[in-house]
Amino acid sequence: MENQNESLIKQYVKRRAKRRLFLWLFGTSAGLITILITVFVTLFLILAAGSIDNSDSDSSSGGEAFTGEYSEGLPIYKEIKGRGPFSDEIAQYA
Q: pLDDT: is 43 or 35 the higher one?
């Protein structure tokens, strides 16, 4: 009888240890994998949203694309007024 009780206790302890090991391995790994996937997807979306597409480099106001060089075709905004040492003409070009 005592042997049978010891055997049942050992089986219970083994089963419980196996169950805990299973939950520790797969529970935390699944959680870790889920967290890693979430972080990588978030980083990818942030980087993808922040990237600049060269096809969108045209001016949205219908003017010429900005290349950094001076060109005569830049728009002048007559409604802008200069202040202080800046004349209206200089402020309109800025």
A: 43
